[in-house]
Amino acid sequence: MKNYVKQELTTDVCVNEEEKENIIGQFIRSTYMLDNIPQQLKDPRVWLSVLKRLIIRVITANIDLNVPMQIYIERTDLWNEDLTQYLDLINITDNVLVRHTYVILEGIEAKSTQNNHLNTDSKTTSPPEISFSYCFLLL
Question: Which terminus has fewer CB within 10 Å in the chain: N or C?
Answer without folding.
Answer: C
